[in-house]
Amino acid sequence: MQNIRWNSIDSAPQNTKEMFIVRAFNATQGLNRSYTSDPVATWAVDGEFPRWKHDFAPTHWCELPVFEETE
Fold first, then answer.
1. Which residues of the chain have pLDDT under 50?
2. Which of 41, 44, 55, 63 is buried most deeply by CB count within 10 Å?
């Protein structure tokens, strides 16, 4: 299994590539514990994420995993 590298949402590729996005919460964002939303597979279109249905903005993105072909 490959390592997942989460990147700041500000660096997400635009208009080209599907990716996972999440929102990471911590105590400074109103929760008393760490929490990360479930990942959503989507793409960016001019800074918007069409499949992101939450009231809060995503904070991180990562590339989708590459799967090996099997017989």
1. 1, 27
2. 44
The region, left, alpha or beta by phi > 0 then psi within -120 to 50, assigned to residue 47 is: left
Q: What phi and psi values does residue 9 have, to the nearest 5 degrees?
A: -60, -25
CA distances to 27, 48, 55, 56 from 32, in Å: 5, 29, 20, 17
How far CA 15 is from CA of 25, 45, 68, in Å, comes to 26, 5, 26
The greatest distance separating any two alpha carbons of the chain, rounded to the nearest whole angstrom, comes to 48
- Taking residue 6's Cβ as centre, other Cβ atoms within 10 Å add up to 15
Predicted TM-score of the model (pTM) = 0.72
Query: pLDDT digit string (tens) for 33-44?
Result: 566 777 888 988
